[in-house]
Amino acid sequence: MKKHLNLRSMAAQAVEQVVEKGQSLSNVLPAMQQKVADKDKALLQELCFGVLRTLSQLEWMIQQLMERPMTGKQRTVHYLIMVGFYQLLHTRIPPHAALAETVEGAVVIKRPQLKGLINGVLRQFQRRQDELLAEFAQSDLRFLHPSWLVKRIKNAYPQQWETILEANNQRPPMWLRVNRNHHTRDAWLDLLTEAGLTGFPHPDYPDAVRLETPAPVHALPGFDEGWVTVQDASAQGCVTYLLPENGEQIIDLCCAPGGKTTHILEVAPQANVMAVDVDEKRLSRVYDNLKRLGMKASVKQGDGRYPQQWCGEQQFDRILLDAPCSATGVIRRHPDIKWLRRDRDIAELAQLQAEILNATWSHLKPGGTLVYATCSILPEENQQQIAAFLARTPDAVLSETGTPEEPGRQNLPGAEDGDGFFYAKLIKK
């Protein structure tokens, strides 16, 4: 029974690591999930993701109900109370169970003397919930994003900004990529139907299928055999623009965890693909993905700003540069991004992107294709980045994606669509 009681305190500790210590949830959560029973993993994830999605609301509620914030070693209790609020507001967990288990969490984090305080705050919240929610709905925090990011999105999308913020606060759809070497998309959709699941094809990306409701991977026909891969539809758009062909020399730069590397090899199994990423730890995921799909690529650890270090003077037919970015297009998948990013990061990222673009362009053969992509929705990293590159690079020509005045194609996150994503296809004269 003890392990189950731990879930609330574990969620509180995970959120604290993200908000106070700047850790990424995708680094913190897997280690914690290993400690809990399989049946509890989904709830632990829901509590962590949910609290981070609605953090500004929960923070505001605590300020209304407590005279002094919890500080120092008591700080975990602050996040434990948030976990309690989240359950009462946003889950179907019966209130008495949410209360009991959250209060019990104080014992696990060695703060049993604060059980009465936690219980009191949660019960007060239950009594005043409707009035607090009505008041919060009038506040500037209601968009559940930091103010600097609201301002940037508002400036970039004066007509659509509220829709974008709303989409960021939703749970993401589950998108799959059908491996065309095993089945056509339609044939695999028939297998999915036989398995009792429903999927919908994407109108633009030929391998993409959206599940009506997310499902565990082992429920998907042929997942272990490599028939299908979990990958967002917008991410699949990269290879639709890249158009890889057999026999070509291709770089997938910033490749981890390997979704685009394997997509290139599904489309062009005889291509020579070099998959490069700066983060050595994340390259293990690339190897895992290649292994599951029975594919081979030359996997290298390297910095995109210094290609000579990992490819010498080699020239390539096609380069896919999925550039390091603010990830503001995938907030619904990674709600911690809202609290980890800072306003000043955007200019630094734009500078890094420009350096990588310049460095890799010299390794593209004349007549070759470079696809620049980001999972960002901010113009500084996207349209403005490509406009500046075209202005300083006389042998670069924009193809299929926008116009020289408005370069690139920008996808925005949508409930039944892919994540926020940007693409620009460039041909070397």
TrEMBL record:
GO terms for cellular component: cytosol. Residues 164-429 form the SAM-dependent MTase RsmB/NOP-type domain. The active site is at residue 375. S-adenosyl-L-methionine binds at residues 254-260, 277, 303, 322. GO terms for molecular function: RNA binding; rRNA (cytosine-C5-)-methyltransferase activity. Pfam families: Methyltr_RsmB-F, NusB, RsmF-B_ferredox. The keyword Transport does not apply. Its main location: cytoplasm. It catalyses: cytidine(967) in 16S rRNA + S-adenosyl-L-methionine = 5-methylcytidine(967) in 16S rRNA + S-adenosyl-L-homocysteine + H(+). GO terms for biological process: regulation of DNA-templated transcription; rRNA base methylation. It is found in: Cytoplasm. Keywords: Cytoplasm, Methyltransferase, RNA-binding, rRNA processing, S-adenosyl-L-methionine, Transferase. Its EC number is 2.1.1.176. It is an enzyme of class 2 (transferase). HAMAP family: 16SrRNA_methyltr_B. Specifically methylates the cytosine at position 967 (m5C967) of 16S rRNA. Belongs to the class I-like SAM-binding methyltransferase superfamily. RsmB/NOP family. This is Ribosomal RNA small subunit methyltransferase B.
